[in-house]
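ASSEMBLY PREDICTION REQUEST
Request ID: AP-0331
Submitted by: J.K., bench scientist
Number of chains: two
Total residues: 567
Priority: normal
Notes: Please return the full assembly, not individual chains.
Input sequences:
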Amino acid sequence: MLPAEIAKLGVEATTDVRRALREADAVNVLRIQFERMNEALIPSIREYARYFGLTEEKLADIPAGLVVLHPGPMNRDTEIAHEVAEANAGTILRQVSNGVAVRMAVLYLLSGGEGQN
Amino acid sequence: LRLLIRGGRVVDPATQHDAVADVLIEDDTILAVERNLDASNARIVDARGLVVAPGLVDMHVHFREPGFEYKEDIETGSRAAARGGFTAVACMPNTNPVIDAESLVAQVIQRGNDVGLCRVYPIAAITKGQKGAELTEMRVLSDAGAVGFSDDGLPVESARVMRRAMEYATFTGRPIIAHCEEKSLAAGGHMHEGEVSTRLGIPGMPGAAEDLGVAREVRLAEMAHGRLHVCHVSTARSVDVVRRAKERGVRVTAEATPHHFTLTDEAVAGFDANAKMNPPLRPESDRQAVIRGLLDGTLDAVATDHAPHAAREKLVEFDRAPFGIIGLETSLALSLEVLVRGAGMDLLTLVDRMSATPARLLGLEAGSLRPGAPADVVVFDTEAEWTFTEADVGSRARNTPFFGRKMTGRVLLTLLDGRATWESPAIRARLGVAVGVPAKKDRSVEASAS
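STATUS: Completed
Returned structure:
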């Protein structure tokens, strides 16, 4: 599921969620698109949730202060456990709201709007 | 009627001739290639400083007729060929209807003859309707004039059918010409899968899809003792598969296109649908491997995969655009740029890859300036600098990523059976007497009469 040759873009990629969490200041969880399931990318939602989903159990050893983000809409108990989503609802909802404003700004600029300066 | 092409560098791989000489043509036939031939009673073309070679042969074009004349037809395709120095082309059968019957083979040949700007040879389908199930009547089609068999664009999915096709085609002595691709791996992709596709967010087609296809067809050809020609090789691994197959005696040949040895997948970065083709443009390492393959003969021929599409079909989102670009007008200039000046290929080898060898692979009477051969000749200037623009296109289509590119090396004169089918304004001044393009027939009159 990782994009081809992602490392060439200058990022380190890992499929080890626990390791990624240990080294992160913030984690942005993206929605798993159920419509992609027919491409045989993963065997099942159950398996994906168990090994890649962000759960309280995976966060247990992570020091406080990790910022959990999700652009929404969320598949609860799939990529993000219900409890984790609730505990971080403040940041997640703010991200969703801000995302609307950012999209509006990008569309405005792309369609010829003038920036303020 | 005699024509003397005087003082050019005559490059003819069939006779290993690469030296200054005169070429004397009588009517439609080469009479002699020697120094200081007698010019009396002959019109003269002053070719000093120019290269004189057998007319180029493109074994992989799409002229879209019948069925897709809005993209290209045999007349506009032939015009593109003539401008590019080509005197013979082999047309792929993915028309509508598919070229899978004797009458359709005959129709393509007839139309090519009527137009008279280029020898047009049909490649017939491997399976009826290119559906991958039933074999076409290959011997009938071969006897009718098909020069090979291909389901180009829709590779035969079943290995069993492909095996049978390769076995059966041996009765005709003609090659199975295979677009090699594992469709189940490449499906849904629109460009090479790699760093650039990741950056652009365009679904990719892995190089392995081509490698798997080539490996399968090579192995089947080996088992079936068939003759296989691999279309448009674009990856380093596919070049390797062909190289190793040749080493162990498999009857396999292969071609490469100018766009694959000139451009990389970076050309897609502006979402230019004219950089979209199948196989897709690949990374630099693959491009280099293709060039090496052409240099060492692993890849036998340069072929354009000239694939015209209407402007409106390409002026859409990248993912929705059809695959393919035109290539006849730019093939020689790009080959001179990348293979000769860029990679040190000698002219004799280049002309071999672009004329003698493709002619031999398809069993065509073309690709040589031997006395007695048809007077199919190209005269080109390896040093002429020009910028490729729409005005240089003979095709009905304009789908090329090369507009605006500075080219060095230009076709000045193309002769088919001793008649000029393309004459650049630049050479008119060098003609003792104008050769003159034959008047075009009025096709509307013919059509209404029939």
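REVIEWER COMMENTS: Chain B is about 30% helix and 20% strand.
SIGN-OFF: pending second reviewer
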